[in-house]
Amino acid sequence: MHSSYPNLPVDAKAAQADFQAAFESLARERVRDLLQTYLEHEVDELLERSRYERCKPGRPVAYRNGHDEPRSLTTGVGTLKVSRPRVRGVRFDSAAMPRYKRRVACLDRTAHDLWLEGLATRDVEPALRALLGANAPLSASTIARVNAQFVSDYDDWSKRSLSNVDVVYLWADGIFLGAGDADERRVILAVLGADSSGVKHLLGLADAISESEISWRELFEDMNARGLPAPHLLIADGADGIWNAATKAFPTAKQQRCWFHKQQNILDKVGERVKDEVKSALNEAMYAKTAQESESCLHTLAAYLDAAYPKASSCIRDDMERLFSFYHFPERNWKSIRTSNPIESVFASVRLRTEAAKQMRTGKSATYLVFALIRRLSENWNRISGHAHIAPFLAAHAAAKTTG
After folding, report:
1. What is the 3-state secondary structure (H, E, C) of 303-323?
2. Of residues 333, 327, 339, the one with CA closest to residue 291
3. Is residue 404 assigned to a domain?
4. DSSP state of 389
5. 75 and 190 both lie in a single domain
6. pTM of this structure
7. In a domain, 42, yes or no
8. CA-based nearest residue to 337, from 377, 286, 401
9. Number of other residues whose CB lies within 10 A of the CB of residue 297
10. Which of 252, 168, 167, 174 is nearest to 213 (CA)?
11. How would you classify residue 377: left for phi > 0, otherwise alpha for psi between -120 and 50, otherwise beta?
């Protein structure tokens, strides 16, 4: 019976090290042969005839003219020597081996992915060189240039139209990173949205020095200029800057203050002796079935804390009305919209990577890193809780406005 195994010049019974070396050499040789064959095939397609076939009458005269000197091309199996065909009479642009290209495109993507995973620029080179060989065209500056190629992805994304996103809920928050000179800190402002199907989208990113009203207003105005429809609800922490900016940018949107941040602020102002009791009361208020019941729980707690912890009771009463906005929306959505957890959970993953980077050179590089990380995380995002109830709610809301 004919064997299905090719006749390979590799002795499978040889010593492990010898077999491995021979097998890797064979793999590189076969890949080189395949690449060389593909280059010749590209020329056949360009000239519309195979080697030694005559040119068709009426066609421009173009012909093969040997090969360039062998040049190195680094691939996933190592560095190969390949001769690029020369063509006269017509320009030959190879997709398999572009001019001046010394690495296949997938290696650039691999280097970039390693950087995203947490390797410093200087560490990507030795990690790849161990796999690709000492002659691979790699250096710290090479990796920096490779990463710069992908920054254009962010530039295109930050200018795209937002008019096609039927945004219902918006979450806004900032993450502080080390970027710029010395110990300078930057905040990356981020806006996440959910559409009428409950699908989450990263809608805006910008670097700033602080979470000021001006910084948030610039980001919101940019999103409006790119056609973002007015959201129904904005969820954020308690910073005054974001609320002032949001009121001007989205005047019709209701505003929900994050219950988690509010709880943390209150618990920070009470003693350890009563902390568990206060936390239990706050949870009772947060999970109340109606806004009136929730408000009653908070007023009771504030009165209880007035004497011993006046700062905590003052914190409870401060901006209380923004804690109940989520009650205007479908109950099945409450889990996702009474806190900023949908965006905070994203930041938790981002922090794991950015803490390894310590200090980034510029605010733009920090912004791009956050963008690339969130875009990768978004591939596994789930829709928000109770997403099936959003569309019926919007339809009823629109009908009520029409009849009203």
Report:
1. HHHCCCCHHHHHHHHCCHHHH
2. 327
3. no
4. G
5. no
6. 0.73
7. yes
8. 286
9. 19
10. 174
11. alpha
